[in-house]
Structures are given as structure tokens and as C-alpha cells.
Design a protein that fits this description.
By secondary structure, the chain is an alpha/beta fold. It has an eight-stranded mixed β-barrel with strand order 1-2-3-4-5-6-7-8, surrounded by four helices. It starts with 5 loop residues before the first strand and ends with a helix.
């Protein structure tokens, strides 16, 4: 096990239908900040291998491919070969010189059934031996502009390669990439659609938005929650299905709605109804948005419990749950929040209006997601959060989010 703190973040990679194809994993090891440099490569490799043992690769990616960057030395040392070929994609970094040793290392990986990916690709004749073996080529859309994005695809069309557009920031860039032949996409485009102030919201979304507003009233009573569920047949059915799912591990089947309500309790009921409502609102959106909202909610709550009272920590859960509501409804966030009876601290955090405790914690979550380790450390220090506790919170939150999605 690791004797120092490891952090791992992940960024989704989508196909043309917005299904998650894999996740790129981003690593950080606190030990590297004070390391003397005698064997930095070996330390980095230890972070990769041990973090898989510590966290579990299937926890990180839920069975999808894990895209991992490997340096020249790690390729020559066959570090990728220590990891399961079914679950990883080997990214050859752009600064790797394709000498004979590297080419042979890639050949061995290919023969052993590993997926090979060329990262931040810029064409060069010397890379042809590896291009001939590559499964995917990643093209950075911030560096490769205009016609050059198309030219790369045309130039290499004789090879059985798929192309991945990374750092795709807008829906227009995504649509352009699809049109010119890219198969996979990475970036924040999926949570940056065109948002209009006067967009008509479909009636079913309006109904679930009202339910969201009702269950998040500050003085809501348990009986009122029961009434909300009883008047919606779909909610009643889904609650009984949820309470009888493997996530609870109950020995006796629950058939009574009231019994299910009592078993969950008020706080968990509010979370559950919020989840179901978000899922209905997000029917026409990538499923990753709901998963990411859940992950943010649980991760934030777990971290908050280490620095604030339980009641306040429960409010941090709501920040995560509502963090994509503007994307799901395609309306400006400030307009939606005016209609919601949420605490001002929650609204201010979501709108980045202040530097209160909730806002800083939300910034910490976002920076961790992006693998912006410098920013993350700054916020952790400001809040007094012990970094060694963060990885456990992130891992537990990932498992919980996947389990909740599966149960519903």
C-alpha cells in the first residue's frame, strides 16, 4: 500500500451517441512535491500501479476503458503490462521519441492485446511504425485548428484508426468533429449547450422541477414527502423497486410504501426524490450528467462532514445535485435558482457569488474533477481538509453513485 497520499481524477470520453466509452485518469502523488529526483520515473509508476490497488480500477471506470499516459521509460519497462489489458488504453505521450526500443515495446503491447493510443498527435514520418499499430489517435482541438483537424483524418484514412477529439469545449466543435470523421470526444462540451432565457420546458420536466422545489423546502415535514410520493404512481413504484434492490441488502421484501419511507428516513428520501426527478429531467441528456451530479453531491457531503456539522453538510449534497440543473433544463442557472427554495449559501456557491465555506468546497470539488491539483490543494488548505482523507471520500462516492444509478 502507499505510504503517501495519492489522488486520482477521471474525465469521461464519449462516443457519437454521448455514451461513455472510457475515462482518462489523472494522477497526483503528494510525495512528488518533496521528492529529491533520484528516481522520479519509478515513483510515478508506483503511483499508477498502487492507486489501482488502493482504489480499484473498476471502481474508477465502472468497467469502461481507463486511458492512462505512459512515458518513454514506463513503456520500455513494460509498466502497462502490469495492468489488465481489458480495462486500460495505453496512451503514448507526444514527447516520446519512437526509437527502436519504443517501437518494440509498443509491438509487444499490441501483440498482448492492449489498446494503443497516440496522445496530442502531430504527424511526423518517424511515428509511422507506431501509427500502423495505433487503435486511436487523440487530436487536441485547442492546438489543432481549422482545416488541420480534417487533414489529419484524411492523411491517415488508409490506416484502421479511430480519432478522438480532445479539449472539445463547445457543442459546435463536437458537431464539427463528428462531421469530419472523429469517433470519440473528450472535453466540457457535453455540459456547455446553448442556453436560452425563454426556452419552453416540456411539461414532464416542469412536473419534476416542481417536485424538486417541493422536497427541498427548508421546513418540509415527513408527511408532506409521503404525500408527494403517493400522488405520483411512478415515484411510488420506483421507491419500492429501490428499497428492494441489492443496494440495501434487505432479507425481507418490502411491499408497503409507508414501511419503505420509514426505512429511508427524511434526509435520504429528499436525496432519493431529487435523484429520480433529475433523472426524469435529464432523459434527453447524457447519463454522465446525472452520474457526475451524484458524485459531486456525495463527495461534497463526505468532505463537508469532516469540517462542519451534519445538518450543514447535508446542504453541500444539494450543491452537487443541482450543479448541472441549468444544462438539464437549458435555462440560465440564475433564473432557475430564483424559483427554488434553496438556502442562500447553496445558491451563492452554484453561482460563484462569494467565498464562503460552501463556495470554496464547491471549487475544491470542481478542481479535483479536472485534475487541477494546485488549485485543489489551495482550497483543501483553506478549508482545513486533510488531503489523505480525500481519496477515500472520492472512492466511496464513486461506488455510491454507481450503485444508486444501478438501483434506479
Amino acid at each position: 500500500m502507499l505510504g503517501n497520499t495519492v489522488h486520482v481524477a477521471r474525465q469521461p470520453i464519449f462516443d457519437t451517441n454521448f455514451n461513455v466509452f472510457g475515462y482518462e485518469l489523472l494522477f497526483r502523488n503528494n510525495f512528488m512535491e518533496s521528492y529529491d529526483g533520484t528516481d522520479g520515473e519509478q515513483s510515478t509508476n508506483s503511483v499508477i500501479v498502487n492507486s489501482f490497488l488502493l482504489i480499484g480500477i473498476e471502481t474508477l471506470t465502472n468497467g469502461k476503458k481507463a486511458f492512462i499516459n505512459f512515458t518513454a521509460k514506463s513503456l520500455k519497462d513494460n509498466i502497462p503490462g502490469m495492468l489488465p489489458k481489458e480495462l486500460i488504453a495505453v496512451e503514448v505521450l507526444e514527447d516520446v521519441i519512437p526509437d527502436e526500443e519504443i517501437i518494440n515495446a509498443c509491438k509487444k503491447l499490441k501483440q498482448d492485446g492492449y489498446m494503443l493510443v497516440l496522445d496530442d498527435f502531430v504527424f511526423s514520418e518517424e511515428f509511422i511504425p507506431i501509427i500502423e499499430m495505433a487503435d486511436i489517435i487523440k487530436v487536441d482541438f485547442r492546438i489543432t485548428l481549422g482545416q488541420k483537424r480534417r487533414e489529419i483524418v484524411q492523411q491517415l484514412k488508409k490506416y484502421p484508426i479511430k480519432f478522438l477529439a480532445e479539449k472539445v469545449e463547445t457543442i459546435e466543435e463536437f458537431e464539427e468533429a463528428v462531421k469530419i470523421g472523429y469517433s470519440y470526444f473528450q472535453g466540457y462540451f457535453f455540459c456547455k449547450p446553448v442556453i436560452t432565457s425563454h426556452k419552453n420546458i416540456p411539461q414532464y420536466k416542469v412536473s419534476y422541477l416542481h417536485i424538486l422545489q417541493e422536497v427541498n423546502q427548508p421546513e418540509l415535514e415527513f408527511k408532506e414527502i409521503e404525500e408527494i410520493i403517493k400522488r405520483d404512481l411512478s415515484l411510488s413504484y420506483q421507491l419500492l423497486k429501490f428499497i428492494n434492490s441489492p443496494a440495501f441488502g434487505l432479507k425481507t421484501k418490502i411491499n408497503s410504501l409507508h414501511q419503505a419511507l420509514v426505512l429511508l428516513g427524511k434526509k435520504e428520501l429528499i436525496k432519493w426524490i431529487s435523484l429520480i426527478s433529475l433523472r426524469h429531467i435529464s432523459k434527453d441528456k447524457p447519463g454522465e450528467l446525472v452520474l457526475e451530479s451524484l458524485l459531486r453531491a456525495r463527495f461534497g457531503e463526505r468532505l463537508a462532514l469532516t469540517i462542519m456539522p451534519k445538518q450543514r453538510a447535508a446542504n453541500v449534497f444539494l450543491i452537487g445535485m443541482f450543479s448541472h440543473i441549468d444544462i438539464l433544463l437549458e435555462r440560465p442557472l440564475q433564473h432557475i435558482l430564483v424559483e427554488m427554495s434553496l438556502a442562500e449559501e447553496i445558491k451563492n456557491a452554484l453561482l460563484a457569488k462569494d467565498n464562503g465555506q460552501f463556495s470554496v468546497l464547491y471549487k475544491l470539488i470542481l478542481s479535483y474533477e479536472k485534475g487541477d491539483w494546485e488549485e485543489y490543494s489551495k482550497y483543501a488548505k483553506e478549508l482545513g481538509i486533510v488531503e489523505r482523507d480525500v481519496l477515500n471520500a472520492y472512492r466511496e462516492s464513486l461506488v455510491w453513485a454507481h450503485d444508486i444509478i444501478a438501483a434506479n
